[in-house]
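Troubleshooting entry. Yesterday's outputs looked truncated, so today I'm pasting the complete records for two proteins to confirm everything comes through intact. If either block looks cut off, that's the bug. Protein one:
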Amino acid sequence: MKSNARCWTPPAVALLIAMLLLSGCATANSDARAPCPPVVLYSVTEQARAASEVAALPESAVVVRMLSDYAVLRDQVRACM
């Protein structure tokens, strides 16, 4: 005897459509912008120390790429303000 449980399972697309329709009923103002996170300020001494520490790292260090990404993120936060 074949199981017909699959026939009673709603397809994932139907669930997605239901969630999209329900999200249209949200009462919050969607035009309101989220507040920008604060930008941490570093002293000139801290910046100089960080620069010398990064300069001592090899070019292939993952931390160098991560710091580059962090710099882009800080620029985006400044533009948000």
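Protein two, checking that the full record survives here as well:
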Amino acid sequence: MTGADLHLTLVRHGATAWNDGGRWQGVTDNPLAASGEAQASALAPRFGGQAFELAFSSDLTRAVQTAELVLPGHPLILDPRLREIHFGQFEGLKVPQMQRHPEYPVWQADPWRVGPPGGESLAEVAARLRAWVEDLSGGRVIAFSHSVAIRTLLVDLFGWPLMPQPDYPVPYAFRLGHTGVVDLRRVGGHWTLHV
């Protein structure tokens, strides 16, 4: 349902030990590190007293824990479509280790259509996030997800160009820090980004 007015807030999870160590985790189900718990707790006052009709989360532990710290006691709907990109054989690796893999150049040649070995392409991530957001009927909604997933949805919704980055595997010119927040509005089927 894409016609109803929607105010959608997207929140990236707090940091895990793998994030703090520079390892790419994708769908590997790591919990928050102490640093991530602190980040989520620090974000909670921003949403204190705000009313959300629905609160969603990726079903991965780091996103669920973030949601529970930011919105304590709020009913939470877990949806695997909000998961991070599946990095396949690259999960758990740091970027220099990825770059030594023989399949790395194949992936980097067209990451929108080609996934890492055993993983997802960005187009596949966009399709599942788009399907999720099109199921939202309207109102005030918050969702806890992941960096590449959120940015892929934005690229898909707004038609932003891919911009390959040196020494960074995902071709987006913008980053989203831990517990970073993105606010979107859908009015009459038209999306706008609010910062």
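Both blocks look complete. Sanity check on protein two: The domain at 6-183 is CATH 3.40.50.1240 (Rossmann fold).
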